## 1
Amino acid sequence: MAAPTSVVATPIPPNEQHISNQPFTLHNWYKKINWLNTTLVILIPAYGLYLTRHTPLTRPTLLWSILYYFMTAFGITGGYHRLWSHRCYSARFPLRLFLAFTGAGAIQGSIRWWSSGHRAHHRWTDTARDPYSAMRGIFFSHLGWMVFKEDPKLKGRTDISDLDSDPIVVFQHKHYGMCLLFAAWIFPMLVAGIGWGDWWGGLVYAGLVRGCLVQQATFCVNSLAHWIGEQPFDDRRTPRDHLLTALVTMGEGYHNFHHEFPSDYRNAIQWYQYDPTKWLIYLLSALPLFPQTSDLKTFRSNEIEKGRLQQQQKAIDAKRSSLDWGSPLSQLPVLSWDEFLRQASGDGAALVLIAGVIHNIGAFVAEHPGGKALIKSVVGKDATALFNGGVYEHSNAAHNLLSTMRVGVLRGGQEVEVWKKNGAGNRLAKDVKGQAVIRAGEQIMRVGAPMNAAVVA
C-alpha cells in the first residue's frame, strides 16, 4: 500500500493576485488607485477649492450654496441611508424622486451601490468584509476605501433585491453618470445663473465646493463616528455617539444607537439631541394635506432601555472588579471555635467573629472611631449583635471596610459555611464575571433582627 502523499498549496503568482494584495512598487502604485473615485472625491473638489481664489462669492450664491448643501446632505441621510439602506420609513413618489436627485448631487455613487455597501458595513462591522472597516484606521474608513482598489472577493455580500424592484433606484443606477453631472454641477449653476446671473459662481460654490463639503461630512459617519464618543448601548464594536459627529453629519452622529437599532428612523432619541434628519422625516409625515412619509419605524423603548442598562451594568462591573471587596468566602479557611479562640490574640492578631465570618481587625484598632477600649473588648468574641445595632448600627462604609479584613469562616457559624461550600448558590447576586455583587445594605455581615416566633394556640 502506497504511503499517502501530502498536498502542498501552490502559491498564487504575484501577477495573478488582485492588485490590492500585491506589494507596493514604483511600477504598480497607479494600478492600486481607483481613478474614477479619486477624481470625484479628491481631484475635482481640490480644483474647485483652487478656483475660489479667483471667484468672487456673492451673498445670493452663498445662501444658495448653503441651502443646496443641506438638500444634498438630506438626500444621503434621509434618502440613501434611512429610506433605502435601512427602510426605516416609507416615502411617496415625489419625495423619493427628490431624494434620488439630491442624493446624486452629493456625488457618492448610486442608491443601489451606496446602500449595498452600507448594508455590508452593518452586517460585517469591524471585520475584513466591512467595506470601510474602522479596524483598518481612520484614513481608510474615511477616504482610503474610496480611492484604493479593493479585492471584490473580500467584500461582504448583502441582499438588495428590494432595491432592484424599485424603479427609481433602477433608473438612477442605470443613468447615474448623467444624474450626477446634472444634479451635482449643472443644476446648481443653472439656479444661480438664471436666478441672479452668477453662472460661474454657482458652478464653483454651489457645485464644486458644496459637493466637496457634503462628501467629507458624510464620510465622517464612517470614520469620526467610529472614533470619538460614548458607547451607551454596546462597546463590543467601534460605533460611537458624539454631538460633534451629529453636527457635521445632519444628525448621523449617534452611531452607537444606530448600529444597535438600525431599523429605527431616528439616530437621536432624546429631544435635545441634534438630529435634523429625524425632524424632517417626522415633519414630512405630519403635513396636513399630502404627507410625504409614513410608517416611521421606532424600536421598542423597553428594548432600548434594556440595552442601555446592560451597558451601564457592564461598566459598573468593570469598575467593581478593580476594587478590593475582600477575599471571597470560598477562598477562606474554615476554623473551629477552639481554633478561633486560640488564634484570636496571637502574633499581633485581633480576631473577631461577625455573622459567622472571622475578621482580623488588628490594624484597625488604633483607627476605630469608637476608641480602642470598645473594639478590644470584642476580640475573641462573637460581635454580630454589637456590630448590627447592639452598640451602634454601623454604616455602609464600615461594612465595606470590614469585608477587607476577612481571614476565615467559623465552622457551624450561622449559615456562612454553607455559602462557602455552595459557591454560586449563595444568597448574593452575581456580576458578569460570576463574582458576588455586594450592594449597599447586602453585606454578609448585616444580620437583621429575628422574626417573632409563631404562637401556637
Note: The chain has two domains: 28-310, 329-425.
## 2
Amino acid sequence: MAKSGVLEDGDGDPVVAAAAKVMELKRELQKIVKAIDEGDDVNLDALDKAHRLLCALKELKIKKRSLSSKIHDSSSLTVPDEFCCPLSEELMRDPVIVATGQTYDRPFIQKWLKDGNRTCPRTQQVLSHTILTPNHLIREMISQWCKNNGIQLPDPTQYSEDDGPTEADRDRFISLLSKMSSSLSDQKESARDLRLLTKRMPSFRALFGESVDAIPQLLSPISKSKSPSDIDPDMQEDIITTLLNLSIHDNNKKLVAETPMVIPLLMDALRSGTIETRSNAAAALFTLSALDSNKALIGKSGALKPLIDLLDEGHNIAMKDVASAIFNLCILHENKARAVRDGAVKVILKKITNRVLVDELLAILAMLSNNQKAVEEMVEFEAVPCLFSIMRGTACARNKENCIAILYTICFSDRTKWKEMREEDRTYGTISQLVQNGTSRAKRKASGILERLNRAVNLTHTA
C-alpha cells in the first residue's frame, strides 16, 4: 500500500539526530556490501566508500556515546538491557510498543517510520499498522530505576508526535478544502496536496478533527458522483489515501468512521478504482477497526463482503491489507458470523491450499473455528487434509498451533473425520509430534484430539 502516516521529526534532540544518522549510514553500508557480494569483480571504489562509511559510523558512535552521557553516566552505571532502545542502544525516555509487540523509544521508532520503513527493526516482520502504544509498565520500571540511581530523564512530552498546527497550516487547510468544490482540475490538485500533507504532517491529520465539515468537504468530489465510472481514478485514489492517513491519527478514528459517507465510500473503493485505491481502502478499514465501536459499525455496514471478494481476486498488492482488515474485524464475535455468511471460509481455504498468505489466513480461520457454521464449511471444503499438509511442511510453531486448534474444533464437532485423523497420526505422527514439541496451546489441543480418538477406539472395542 502507499506509505502513509509516517511521523514527522521535530524533537531537535542531538542524540536522536546522531542515532538517525547511524541508521542511515548502516543502510547505505548494507547496500554497498550487498553490491560487492553480488558482483563478479571487487569494485575498488565501492571498497573505498565502504571504508569511509565505517569510519563515519565509528565517529558517530563516539559522538552518540558522548551525547548520551548527558543523560546518564554510562561509564559508572550499567543500564539494564530491557530499558535500552534496540535502535539507539540508549536508555528509553518514552517507550512505545509497535504492532509486533516490540518496544522502542518513541523518537527513534518515529524516525524509522518516517524514513518509509514498514518492518519491525528487531524482528524484520512487516508491521500490520504504525500505531505506537505507550508501554506504561516499562516506563514505570525505568522511572523507578532512574529514581533509585539519581538520574533525571527528560520529560517524554517533548518527544510528542506533533507540535500542533500553525495558523499558516490552518489557512492552507481551509484553502485546499474549498477547492474540493471547485473545478475538476482544482479538485485533483487539492486532493493530491491533501494526500501528501496528511502523510508528512501530523498537524494536517489533526486539523480534520477540528471541524465536522472537513471530512465531508474532502469527500464531496466522489460522494456526489452518480456512479463509480464518473469518478476520476487518480482523484479517488488520493482521497481514499487521505482517509487512510487521517485514520492513523488516534483522535480521528471515531470521527472518520462515524462520518456517514465514509464507510460506504470505502466499500465502493474496495470494488472499483485502481488496485492502490482498493488496497488503501482496506488498510483504512483495518486502521479504523482498532476501536471496538468501529468494528461493530464497519461490520454492520456490510464491508466484510467486498473485503472477502477482494481477497478472492488475489491481487498481491492488496491481499495483506485485506487480510489484516478481516482479522481485526473478526475479533468482534458478531463479525465472525458475518464473515462466514459472506463466504470467508471457502475463499480462505482456497488461498491456504495454494499457499498464499498462510500465516495471516490461518490466524483468521482459527478465529472463525468457534463458529459452528464455519466448522461445517471447513469439513465440506476439505480443510482437514489441507491443514495436515501445512503442519507437515512448516517449521512455524504459530502456524502449527493454529492448524491443530482448528482440527481440535473439527474433531469435537464432526466424528466423520476421526478415521482420517487417526490414519494421519499413524502414518506421519503429525498430532503426536505436537504433543511432544508444540507450543503449550498446541500440546493441549493435540493431546485433546488423541484422547478423543483413543476413547472412541476403546468404546468401539468394548462394544
Note: Residues 1-12, 69-75, 158-162 have pLDDT under 50 and may be disordered.
## 3
Amino acid sequence: MRITDIKATTVTVPLEAPLRHSNGVHWGRFVRTIVEVETDEGITGLGEMGGGGESAKLAFEGLKPYLVGHDPFQLEALRWKISNPTASLYNNRTQLMAAIEFACIDIIGKKLGVPAYQILGGKMRDEVEFASYIFFRYPNEKTGAGEVRTIEQVVDHVAELKAKYGFTSHKLKGGVFHPDYELEVYKAIAAANPKDRYRFDPNAILSVEQSVRFAKAIEGLNNDYLEDPTWGLNGMRKVREKTHLSLATNTVVVNFEQLSANILDPAVDVILLDTTFWGGIRPCIKAAAVCETFQYGVAVHSSGELGIQLSTMLHLGAVLPSMPFAIDAHYHQLTDDIIKGGLMTYENGKIKIPTAPGLGVELDYDKLGQYSELYQELGGYPYDRDPYRKDWYPLLPNMTEHWADPAIVK
C-alpha cells in the first residue's frame, strides 16, 4: 500500500459562546484543519490539526514529496522523514506530523479491519472519563445566551453540565479575572459539589508569589492538581517547593527533551499529554511509558478538538495502563461536529471508545462543506486577543490593570 495524495480542508465550527482565557478568547468558534490521506488501495485516513487557512493547506501540500509513495504502515520512518530533530529546528512540523500520523493509523486500522487501539497495544478500558471544562464565557453574539461571568453563573453552569453530561471532575479555566475573584469562584464550585474533584488552570498567567498564595488557599479542597499556575520549569519548580499540591503542565513539558529535564530536576508531577502537541498518539504512549517508569502521573490535554482528534484522545486513553485523572475536552462547548452522527455522546461523564476499524469515525461531507464555507465567510481569529477589550494584550505575569472586571459583561 502506498500514499497517493493528501488533502487539507479548513473548517470553523461554532461554540455555544465565546470562551475566555488568560491569553485572549476563542471567538465563538474553533478553527480546525481536516486532513485526508489517500492510498492506492482506495483507503482514506483522517487527521485533524488546530488552526488553519491557506497556510495550513500550503503546509500539508508541501509535505506531498515526503508522503506520496510512502507506505502508511511505516510510521517510524515517516516520523524521521517529516520531523527529525534537526529539520524541526527550521520546520516546526510536529503538529503536521500528528495529523498525518492520525490518518496513517486510521488507514492501518481500516486495512486490517481493527480499531486503532488494537494497533497501539490493546485497550485497557471500554470508555474514558472526562472532566467538565468550565470557562468564563461572553454571551453568544446572536442569541445573547451562554454568559458565564458571575459566581452564581459559574455554579449554575457546573450544575447544568453535571445534569447533562454526568461530570464529577471539574476544571476551571482561569487567568481572566483577578486571582482573588477566581479563588472565590473555585471555592464556590467545590462547596456546591463537595464529593467531586477539581483542578484549576490559569494558563501560566500568575507570578510565582500569586501561584503560591492560590495553591495554599485551595490545599484543603478535593484537588486533582494545579495546572500551569506560572510560566516556565523554574517558575513551576519554585511553586512546587512551597505547596503540597501536585502540579500539572501542558505548556512546559511538551516534548521528550523537556520531559527529561523535568525528571532530572522535578518541576511538575503530572504530564498532560496532547496527541497534537506531542506529534501523534504514538509519542504520547512513549512519553506515558517514561512517566510510568519514573512514577509521574499522566492525563490527556485538550486543544480544541473536533471528533477526529477526540477519537485519537479516546484511543490513547484506551491503551494507557493507568488513567488516574479524567481527561480534558472542550468538546461539550461545541454545537456540532464534522463526523457522521454529529457530536459524540457522554454517558455518566464518559465517552465510549470507538470500535469501528481505524479511528472509528467517518467524515460527514455535508458538514465538512458547510463549515468550510463558514470558515471562508468568517476567516480565522487571533487567539491572543479579546474582541471586546480594545488594545488589550496579555502579560505574564499579569498586572492589576490587565485583569478583566467581573462586573462588566463585555
Note: The mean pLDDT is 96.
## 4
Amino acid sequence: MASNCSGCGPGYKSPLDAMNGPREEIVYLPCIYRNTEIDKPDYLATVDVNPNSPKYCQVIHRLPMPNLKDELHHSGWNACSSCYDDASKKRNRLILPSLISSRIYIVDVGTDPRAPRLYKTVEPLELHWKCGLANPHTTHCLGSGQIMISTMGDPEGNGKGGFALLDGETFEMIGNWEQPGEAAPFGYDFWYQPRHNVMISTEWGAPKALGFGFKPEDVKAGHYGQCIHVWDWTTHKRIQTIDLGEEGAIPLEVRFLHDPSAAEGYVGCALQGTVFRFYKTEKGNWAAERVIKVPNKKVEGWVLPEMPSLITDILISLDDRFLYFSNWLHGDIRQYDITDRRNPRLVGQVFLGGSIVNDGPVKVLEDAELTSQPPPRMVQGKRIEGSPQMIQLSLDGKRLYVSTSLYSAWDKQFYPNLVKTGSVMMQIDVDTMKGGLTLNENFLVDFGAEPEGPVLAHEIRYPGGDCTSDIWL
C-alpha cells in the first residue's frame, strides 16, 4: 500500500534533507495587471534561473488566465512534503487563488514544468455557496491529500478568516475546514504543526477596506486585525486568540520553525514593523512576545509624519538558523540569526529601493538606525522602483530571490512609478556562515519589458517546493 512506502511521495523526508535538494532551475511567479493601465488577464510566468542556461533571467513561458482583474496572489501545491510517505501523490498541480475575484485556478505543472497549462478553474460561487467565504489567500497541502486554502472575507467583503478544503484529486470544493461559527474575524496566512495538534492563523483586514488602497482611519475603525489565532488541528476548533496589541497590528506571514517537533515560530506584523515569537507554554497553551522592532522614521513629504518599515514577507531558512524579512516602505531586506530564539540578531541588510531614497520626495528628519538616506538602487542600468517585498530562499539557503510588488492597489498608492514601469525580480547572495547579504549584480528579471506591457510580479515558487510551501509531519 502507498501509505507503507517510505519516501515514495513528493518532497523531502526532512527540512535538512531538503537543503541537499537540487538547485532551482526555474521559478513560477504570478503576474498581475489589475490596477495598472493595461486591461489584460493576469498570468503565471515561468522564469529561467539557471546560470548555465542561454535563457538565464528570462521569462520563458506565460500562462494567461481566462479572466480579467483576478489579482493572483499566493500559490501553493496539491501535494508536498506532508505527503512524503504517500506514493500515490505527486507535486504536479500549482494552486493559484485570486485575492479579488475569488477564483481558484489549478495549473498543470507536471506535464511540462517549463510550460504550465491551465487544468481547471474553481469558480467563486463554489467558494461562496459551499463555504460562505471569499478572497482566498494561502494554500497548503495536507497529509490527508486534501488542499486547504485560507480566506480573508465573506462574499460581501467583510472580514472572515475561514478555510476552504479542496479534494486533492478532483479539485472539487469540499467545504469548510473550520467548525460552524468558528471562523476568525479576519484572515490571511496559516501554518500547521500536527505533532503539537496546532494551527496558527493571522489577520490582514476586511477586503472591502483594503480593496482600493490603505487608509489609516480604517485601522482606527477596526477594519484591520491585530490577533493571531490558535486552532486545534484535530477538532478544527479555534481554541485561543492572542491579541498582539497595537504593536502587532496587521500580522501577515506566519512561520513555524521547520523542525516538526518545534513548538514555536514567528509572525511579521506590518503596521509597526515588529516580529513576534509565538510559542507553546509549560501550561500547554500558546503565548507571544515581541522580539524585533524596526523603528519608525520621522519624515516630511510623506502621507504621515512617521513612516513605519511595513514588514511584509518573512521566511525562515530550512535549518532554522536565519529569519529574513522585507521592509516594504523603508526599502531593505534583513537577515537575523535566530539560534537564540528569543533574541534575534541582525547579521545582514541590503537596501533595494523604497520610500526613503535620497533623491526622492521624502526627507527623513529623525532616524534611529541610519546616518543618511540610502541612494536609489540601479541594477544593469535599471532603477529599482518600488521596494523589496516577496522573498524566497534557495533550498541550500545561499540565494534569496526578491520581487517588488505587494498588492496592486497598495503598489499604485505608495509606488505609482512601480505600476507604470513594472516590477523586477532580483537575487541576493547569502553568507550562511557569518550572515550577510549582497545583491547579485548579474541577475535581473525586468517585468517592465513584458510583451503585453509592464506587469506586477508577486510570489516566487520552485517546482520542487520551497521553505514557505512545505510542511513536515
Note: The two ends are 19 Å apart (CA to CA).
